[in-house]
Fold this sequence. Notes:
Blueprint: H1 2-31, H2 39-59
Helix pairs in contact: 1-2
Amino acid sequence: MTNLIQTNITKLQKITKYILMGLIVVIALRYVPDNALKNKEIMMIGAVSSISFAILDMVSPAIRISQESTKDN
């Protein structure tokens, strides 16, 4: 039961991380550019960035880079 609760908390933390990333992009797109973007464009870019971040976050643990140290004797 405790493992299930911990899994749900982890999922909630990840979802919160993705939403927060999308909001940061939306806020940056609202205030940084000199030329104002339409609200629909800002929301779409924010959604795409959030989804892209989620996909990369899910795939990246599967990628491992291993270095074998070689000793020259």
